[in-house]
Amino acid sequence: MTGTSKNQAANVPRGTRIRGKWNQQSYQIMRKLGSGALGTVYLADSAMGRVALKLGTDSMSITSEVNVLKQLSVVQGTVLGPFFYEVDDWEINGKRYPFYVMEYIDGEPLFTFIERRGKEWIGILMLQLLRDLSALHKEGWVFGDLKPDNLLVEGSPPTMRWLDVGGTTSMGRSVKEFTEFFDRGYWGLGNRVAEPSYDLFSVAMIVMNAAYPKRFDRPKKDSETYLLNKIEQSHLLREYKPIIRKALLGKYIHAQDMRQELFSLLQGDNSKVRRRPEAPSNSRVASRQKPPKRVKQKGSKWIETVLIVAFLLFFYTLYLVGHVF
Fold first, then answer.
1. Superfamily, domain 17-103
2. Which of 88, 145, 183, 257 is catalytic?
3. What are the residue ranges of helices labelled H in 95-163?
């Protein structure tokens, strides 16, 4: 369930040709990719090849998302979202529907990938996600509606890619779109102010969702104890317990802090996770913190990259051996 509800554009049948009013570019609808509170995304064929086309009913919402996509495209050194191509209007039967066109990411759903390749990939992919979130937060944005449906894995080596950026919100504002299971407000563990800790709670719930694919409902009271018990009841989650617990309780102010502790955990050095001081859990305190300044990383970044590649090669070798025998 999504926290924002607006009328979506009517379903567009396969084969429909959408021509932009202003740019006169033509797109033939192939199939529906997904829908949210602010519109519906379709796979379409065009002169550029296959693209993703998001059709909405609210011009202001579409314009806002386009601005976010443009902003993400200038973040140096990191590919955060789909590449943006153009924005236009489609007129049909006397009505006007705003739409924008972006890169079609031909990837594999996050949990489908993990189910096929193994639970060992959860930690590696979360490292990638936290790295990208850190870059996003430094630009003054929060993803907001962070959930498995908005994440794909593509390429070799596997790379995490983001899909719908409709929930991306400027720091300090109210999150404009969310999905209850991944929303700390739904669990009563914080507000919906856009700050890094909001996204980090969602990251923890994505890992929880990997252990509980059917998800679960919140209790009538004491969500904190309920979620912590869920961690203890899962062998998978117990491996990440110190990281998940701190993210759920708002102990991380910056994504990079959570990433560094997760990296130490994957290396088997739990002492670094325990010794690191925790940030205040009060979300209002966290929201007053200024975004961290960019810090140039030298040798440590190179060593980290080598270790991650080693992890990938190790699991890929296990994957090949499993298929041979």
1. Phosphorylase Kinase; domain 1 (3.30.200.20)
2. 145
3. 110-117, 121-138
